[in-house]
UniProtKB/TrEMBL annotation, chain A:
This is SRPBCC family protein. Residues 46-163 form the Coenzyme Q-binding protein COQ10 START domain. It comes from Sphingobium naphthae. Pfam families: Polyketide_cyc. It comes from the Bacteria.
Length: 197, 397
């Protein structure tokens, strides 16, 4: 069974798992108004109906509840949103992104505006998991790492690398949707506040 | 509050640390009344488990009284509960199949990376057992924060003393699951490697499940005595060749089911350990998979091998050929504690399972470092130490 964006006609594995060095370009060709040249993507199964998950995600202001590096998302009207995102060394970066695709219960796509510091675009897709086992949520992200390769290494050191972040954000989304909360190993409020920084 | 904290190899201390707080809706705070030191804790004590941090609070076998609840908890203040060592959400696919130790959501998202890299998928969280299993503060303390308190803890009826039910937290369900995984049939002979708490509960469980005979293997005379008390025949592996003895004791057929309750933890198989002195007198030498390999070779054709014992990474010289040719079945895993607790509580109340025989020592929490030292150095006599935070310190002589 296919999983989102596929690489070639000969197989069903998603392009995000391809060994092809052109995989970002292939993915970009399949996204609306794609921006960015680094591709990350992940799928997680969530034991909830597709529409519930879509509805939560479509209220973009709520996403910081599980996207640990996103400080806030403010609606600017007309499908435009300002993202304020934590960057390494206590800084933040901001950009405005517009919703480019909106299929209720199925998919949401977005892309950053021309002058964004961090060019990025992405898509989250909601599909019924086989066998009535909930929903497959696939997030695909294309982005230009700030400061090129060096910026990427630094970001990784601070755990703000999008590949790590997408994987962890999806796990937190699953926790929130399945259990109503985000798991923490802290035992005091102060410790948890520290973990989130 | 006071809590037993880890600071490095053979360095555990009772420190004053902040009290735990409710952080998530489904949390509860428990005031600990009894908390055991486990064989697995010795592994932390010996410094062999990675991803420990100085100040981590240990302990995964505990019970106590509910003192605070989050808005989503179903517990009430004042209830007495035993808490499973596995932290499981009750809502994911695995929990819905009662595979609680495989819960998708028990580990914080960041901590899932290590387990995913090591095992392919992340496992459930565990209390007091390194940051790879979630970095959760353990229960060798006055208080503990219990996540998912609406699905984990089991409420204990009034009048049933702690010592009877404490082991519902880990080792009793582990011994029971081990016997269940051995798929015992009437007439079966079951061999159990290791007469620690897990092995001894597996012996009792195997008889309850209809085993005709149980043969228990260890080298500590006192532990073998305890196995004999429950009706097992015993073999001392320091004095006897295990494979030869098992075949002779089963008319040349081999045991129908074999349970490995030794694993990496027991005698560590580490250079500075007692195991080193033993291995020269046994036939397989240095290999870490000693007991599981013996179990596979001794097991009868078409038989079952159950492995509650914990193994960490890769093993060497695993007899895959014997395993295949003889058509064995192997079942293993961390225990799905939540699944077994209610039925086992009933079995204890009905007097079908004896639990208190195991406790050799009771001491106040303040003496926990001494308890670790004793448990580490004297495994023959020290079968189980239960720490009681409320207990008075003994008077100086
Ligand atoms: N699956 C689970 O969820 C789970 C839960 C709890 C414990 N465990 C594991 O179960 C195992 C047993 O736990 P325990 O608390 O009873 O440990 P323990 O250390 O108290 O007991 C192990 C016993 O094995 C004996 N032994 C050592 N080498 C042996 C050999 N070659 N042959 C026969 N006996 C041998 C030791 O003398 C000791 O008495 C450990 O690996 C532990 O980590 C698993
Ligand atoms: Zn234990
Ligand atoms: Zn779960």
């Amino acid at each position: 069974m296919g999983t989102g964006l596929t690489g070639t006609q000969e197989q069903d594995a998603p392009i995000t798992t391809s060994k092809d060095s052109d995989r970002s370009d292939i993915a970009a060709a399949q996204l609306d108004a794609a921006k960015g040249d680094t591709l990350v993507g992940k799928t997680v199964t969530i034991n909830r109906p597709r529409q519930d998950l879509y509805d939560y995600w479509r209220t973009l202001e709520q996403l910081p509840a599980f996207m640990e590096n996103v400080e806030r998302i403010e609606p600017l009207g007309g499908n435009r949103y300002r993202w304020t995102v934590k960057a390494p060394a206590g800084r933040t970066v901001e950009w405005v992104a517009a919703i480019t695709e909106e299929k209720p219960g199925e998919a949401i796509g977005w892309t950053s505006e021309e002058d964004a510091d961090v060019a990025n675009s992405g898509r989250v897709e909601f599909r019924d998991a086989p066998g009535g086992r909930g929903t497959w949520v696939t997030a695909t992200l294309l982005y230009d790492p700030p400061g090129g390769i060096v910026g990427k290494v630094i970001a990784k050191l601070f755990q703000r690398e999008p590949a790590i972040q997408v994987r962890r954000d999806l796990r937190r989304f699953k926790q929130l949707m399945e259990t109503g909360e985000v798991a923490t190993g802290a035992w005091t409020q102060a410790q948890r506040a520290e973990e989130m920084n | 509050m006071r809590a037993l904290t880890w600071h490095g190899k053979h360095d555990v201390r009772v420190d004053s640390v902040p009290d735990p707080e409710i952080l998530n809706p489904r949390d509860a705070i428990i005031r600990i009344t009894s908390t055991a030191i486990c064989g697995s804790d010795l592994h932390l004590y010996d410094g062999y488990i990675p991803s420990m941090k100085a100040g981590d609070i240990l302990g995964h076998e505990f019970m106590g009284e509910v003192v605070e609840t989050g808005s989503g908890s179903t517990l009430r203040k004042g209830q007495r509960v035993v808490v499973p060592f596995t932290i499981s959400c009750g809502a994911c696919f695995h929990c819905s199949k009662h595979q609680y130790s495989a819960c998708d959501n028990g580990l914080p998202a960041d901590n899932q990376d290590i387990a995913q890299a090591a095992y392919g998928q992340p496992m459930a969280g565990l209390f007091g057992y390194s940051h790879m299993t979630g970095g959760y503060a353990g229960g060798q303390a006055e208080y503990v924060r219990v996540p998912f308190s609406d699905v984990g803890p089991i409420v204990i009826p009034d009048g049933v003393e702690d010592d009877k039910v404490l082991f519902l937290s880990d080792i009793l369900p582990t011994g029971w699951q081990a016997a269940e995984y051995a798929q015992i049939e009437p007439g079966d002979t079951v061999a159990v490697w290791g007469c620690g708490p897990v092995g001894l509960f597996a012996v009792q469980s195997a008889f309850l499940m209809g085993a005709e005979r149980v043969i228990a293997i260890d080298h500590f005379p006192h532990r073998l005595d305890l196995a004999r008390r429950f009706g097992a025949e015993t073999i001392n592996f320091e004095e006897t060749k295990i494979y030869e003895a098992l075949l002779e004791m089963t008319g040349g057929i081999g045991p129908d089911a074999c349970i490995d309750a030794v694993g990496l933890e027991a005698h560590g198989f580490f250079a500075d350990n007692v195991w080193d002195q033993i291995k020269v007198s046994t036939f397989t030498g240095t290999d870490r998979t000693h007991s599981i390999r013996q179990a596979i070779l001794a097991c009868r054709k078409g038989g079952r091998v159950s492995m509650p014992a914990v193994y960490g990474g890769f093993v060497d010289k695993f007899p895959l050929g014997a395993f295949m040719e003889k058509g064995l079945t192997l079942k293993t895993g961390q225990t799905h504690v939540q699944h077994y607790m209610p039925a086992l509580l009933n079995a204890i109340m009905e007097g079908k399972i004896d639990t208190t025989f195991l406790i050799s020592h009771r001491m106040p929490l303040e003496q926990a470092p001494e308890g670790y030292r004793m448990f580490h150095d004297k495994q023959n006599e020290v079968t189980k130490i239960v720490l009681k935070p409320g207990m008075d310190l003994p008077q100086a002589a």
